[in-house]
Structure formats: structure tokens, C-alpha cells
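Entry 14. Structure prediction run on the chain below.
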Amino acid sequence: MQKQIIRVSDILEQIESLNKMIELHQKESSNNSMLSQYEYLKNEFVKELAQILYEFKTQLPTA
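Output returned:
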């Protein structure tokens, strides 16, 4: 369980960094490829986070 808690913290840090990069590329770049890659990575981290929460018998509500 400790490994999962550490992983959740890591995922949240990764998402925070990706949010900053996404925001930067939305404002200052015409490179949609990079923006798409950051959004893809973020979605993958969110999926992993959802799986970990499921293992704790907790689910994220859908928006």
C-alpha cells in the first residue's frame, strides 16, 4: 500500500507539471503536436490514478 501512496503523489506531481506545459503551449505555441503529446500523457496518468483509486475501492466521479 505504501508504494501506491507514493505513486499517487508522483502521478499528481506529473499532472501538475503537464498542466503547466499544456498551458504554456496553449498560449505561446502553434505546435499542436507537443500539446497533443502533453494531453495524452496527462490522460494516461489520470487513468493510472483512477486504477489505483479503484484498488482502494474508491472511484472518481465522471464529469
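The chain has two helices and no strands.
Filed with the rest of this week's runs.
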